[in-house]
Write the C-alpha cells for this entry.
Amino acid sequence: MDDLDHRLLSALRRDARASLSELALRLGVTRTTVRARIARLIASGEIAGFSVLTRGDRTESPVRGLMMLQIEGRWTERVLARLSGIPEVTACHTTNGTWDLIAEISTDTLEGFDAALFAIRRIDGVARSETHLLLSTRRPVSRAFGQPGSRAP
C-alpha cells in the first residue's frame, strides 16, 4: 500500500458513501484511478467489507466502559469462561503489561454497570481491577490527513 491507498482508505472511513467523483476530487486523481484502487484493495483483502452504523448501534447501551483485570496465577481461562457468562460483558481482550485482560462492558444504567463490576470483581482469580467509563466516541484522526506534514483533503 502506498500513500494514495492510505489516503483513499482514510477518505472511505470518513464517508464510505462518497461517490467516485468526490473521492477523486478529494484525492487529486481521476475517477478511474479511484475505482481501480478500490477494486485492488478489495481483491487483496485490505478492504474486508462495508457496513452501516445505525442510530440503534450507537444508543443501545448508553453506559459503556473498559475494565482492566489482573489475574492471579493461571486463572485466565477460568476467568474468561466466567466473563462470557455475564451478559453486560460485550468483549474480552487479552493484553500485556500490568493488566492481563480488558473487558468491555455495556449497560443501560449506571446501576447496571455497577452490578456488572461487582459481579466481575467476585470472580475467583481476579486479583485487581481498574475501570474507565467511556464518555464519548469519536472517529479516529486519519493517518493521511491528520498528521503533521500530511496533505489536507
Helices lie at 3-14, 20-27, 31-44, 55-59, 76-84, 110-121.
